[in-house]
Design brief:
Blueprint (H helix, E strand, L loop, with lengths): L1 E9 L8 E8 L12 E7 L4 E10 L3 E3 L3 E4 L11 E10 L6 E8 L10 E8 L31 E5 L7 E9 L7
Antiparallel strand pairs: 1-7, 1-11, 2-3, 2-10, 3-4, 4-5, 4-6, 7-8, 8-9
Length: 184
């Protein structure tokens, strides 16, 4: 379970993939080995207010992703500069399976009284159900995860990300990562 609060201080250039982004279950820190980029992403898009889930398979000189699973969550006008938004990204392997459950919760209270967490999106990643996009290139055949595979087991990294230009400013706060017991 990965939780953090993000606040845009300045938009800068808003790109099609700009937003508050969390990555979990990844070893993305080894930039010499693109295979370690496999993991799951949760994002609130800055330009649309959509909440999305995505899987990354490879990150080397190019990146291999799945399509993003998006749902409308709020009007972009409700996502102004200066608004703090809490994101909780829950990732767990369903017991006795190779399925991975992904859930995103959002809190708009800045964590008052523990926050008022609303489930914004969920997806069950099952083997073969969520392959890479056809336009994103090939996955190194030596990588553990291939197109359609779920990303199983503990990894070394979780990280926060925002995209824009040099004038984009986002303040992250109250970040925490904890292991959870998967529900039966």
């Amino acid at each position: 379970e990965f939780t953090a609060y993000g606040k845009y201080l300045n938009d800068g250039e808003i790109l099609s993939y700009s937003g508050l982004t969390m990555a979990a279950r990844t070893n993305h820190g080894d930039f010499d080995n693109g295979c370690t980029g496999a993991g799951y992403l949760a994002r609130i898009y800055r330009n649309t207010g959509e909440v999305s889930l995505q899987k990354e398979y490879f990150h080397g000189s190019y990146t291999v992703y799945t399509s993003s699973k998006r749902v409308d969550f709020f009007d972009p006008a409700e996502y102004p500069v200066g608004q703090t938004i809490g994101i909780k990204f829950v990732v767990y392997t369903v017991p006795s399976s190779s399925n991975v459950k992904l859930e995103i919760y959002v809190d708009m209270t800045e964590g008052v009284n523990g926050g008022t967490w609303v489930k914004a999106h969920e997806y069950l990643d099952t083997p073969g159900a969520w392959p890479k996009t056809s336009s994103s290139g090939s996955i190194d055949p030596n990588c553990e995860e291939q197109s359609g595979d779920t990303v199983l087991g503990a990894r070394d990294f979780c990280f926060l990300r925002t995209d824009g230009d040099q004038t984009t400013q986002v303040e992250w706060s109250k970040a925490s990562v904890r292991n959870i017991v998967a529900p039966n």
